[in-house]
Amino acid sequence: MKRFIETLKNIWKIEELREKILLTLGLLLVYRLGSNVVLPGIDPESLTNLQNQADGGIIGILNAFTGGAFANASILALGIMPYISASIVIQLLGMAVPTIQKMQKEGESGRRKINQITRFLTIAITAAQAPGYIANLMSQNVGVTISPSLFWFTSIIVLTAGTVFAMWLGERITDKGVGNGISLLIMVGIIASLPQAFLQEFASKIDRGGGLVLFIVEIAVLLFVILLSVALVQGVRRVPVQYAKRTTGGRTYSGNMARQYIPLKVNAAGVMPIIFAQAIMFIPVTVLSYAGLESGNANWLVSMFSDIQGFWYNFVFAVMIILFTYFYTAIQVNTNQMAEDLKRNGGFIPGIKPGKSTAEFLDTVLSRITLPGSIFLALLAILPAFAMVAGVNTQFAYFYGGTSLLIMVGVVLDTLQQIESYLLNRHYDGLMKSGKLKGRTVSAF
């Protein structure tokens, strides 16, 4: 405890770090306040049906990511998710569109161009999603105090502006604050529901005999799952690299003195496989519902993809996560480019020929470590279903795994790493007893 207090004092002593943390907290507070501002023309007392709808399914997931803004019919109801969708689209286009591929190789100037394209695409996606959200509002008999046509027009404008504002807040945090702003906004939205879910679970267990012991066991299991998630996020396979001759700090090293490592992450895909799989899992139900075929012969399909505690739902979900992990890892990690960079800089993997043989070796190693990583990721994704079956409250069960837990772990580790860097650069002790956090985590998005 004494060391923790001393670390907080050291953080406060660094003026630049102190200002960044305060700015980050202030912008996050603004985002949370905006999540409770209802759209103009809506009677807040008529939102009961919408809030009940957000208890499960894809609506529940969206509501969790927006910190309850979706169910509150807030001006930030669509949150930052359109920006995430736009970023995913740009990443996928980078595989097939030569122009975007060229921008990705142009360094900082290319990054600025891609960011600008992503912003415009975010506006387009938000403008397309806003009418769907408003139609859902109207179907839930939400009370509207102004004319429907005016409500539709103003709501589309306000929802689009709200997403642009959330995107701006995230970029300000990234540029001027601490951590990845977009990921922090999502994490804050997820954590916002944790206290209520915790209290509900505690109250439900206390009301029955032996409930306190069971609740303590649940918390212990949750902490264990968090430790496993940290291990998944931080896990790397270090591939040794040696340079024939390398100059560092004015000194020339050769042979074993110049040995370094390529850190291949066990889970290079992050949470994206879960997001992709979840999106596809909801497509059949959505399509059949809009087509009016949710009954009759298609009823079994709707039932299977709607029961998040069912065997077949979780089996298909896990298989899709494993497949998408390989797919997204192939997008994120370009072994051919890594081999070319090594060859250009005079580096080689001991026992492996430079060039094509190196690329094949890296690809083989990556495939081997991705298999256990993808299986582990799939197990984490379906853990909430096991928690629900075991009697854990639905809202609290979502924190036992899946996208929510991985985002929180990844964002917290990334933010702590930045704070750690500031402390060590100013010759203070780090956050950890060893003085260094292992590795550098990749932001959630």
From TrEMBL:
GO CC term, one of those recorded: plasma membrane
Cellular location(s): Cell inner membrane; Membrane
Entry keyword Signal: no
Keywords assigned by UniProt, alphabetized: Cell inner membrane, Cell membrane, Membrane, Protein transport, Translocation, Transmembrane, Transmembrane helix, Transport
One Pfam family linked to the record: SecY
Residue ranges of the TM segments: 21-42, 75-97, 117-138, 150-169, 181-199, 211-236, 266-291, 311-331, 369-390, 396-416
GO biological process, one term: protein transport by the Sec complex
Domain of life, per lineage: Bacteria
Keyword flag Transcription: no
Annotated InterPro entries: SecY (IPR026593), SecY/SEC61-alpha (IPR002208), SecY_CS (IPR030659), SecY_dom_sf (IPR023201)
Record's bilayer topology term: Multi-pass membrane protein
Family: Belongs to the SecY/SEC61-alpha family.
Known function: The central subunit of the protein translocation channel SecYEG. Consists of two halves formed by TMs 1-5 and 6-10. These two domains form a lateral gate at the front which open onto the bilayer between TMs 2 and 7, and are clamped together by SecE at the back. The channel is closed by both a pore ring composed of hydrophobic SecY resides and a short helix (helix 2A) on the extracellular side of the membrane which forms a plug. The plug probably moves laterally to allow the channel to open. The ring and the pore may move independently.
Quaternary structure and interacting proteins, as annotated: Component of the Sec protein translocase complex. Heterotrimer consisting of SecY, SecE and SecG subunits. The heterotrimers can form oligomers, although 1 heterotrimer is thought to be able to translocate proteins. Interacts with the ribosome. Interacts with SecDF, and other proteins may be involved. Interacts with SecA.
Name used for this protein in its record: Protein translocase subunit SecY
Natural source organism: Owenweeksia hongkongensis (strain DSM 17368 / CIP 108786 / JCM 12287 / NRRL B-23963 / UST20020801)
Taxonomy of the source species: Bacteria, Pseudomonadati, Bacteroidota, Flavobacteriia, Flavobacteriales
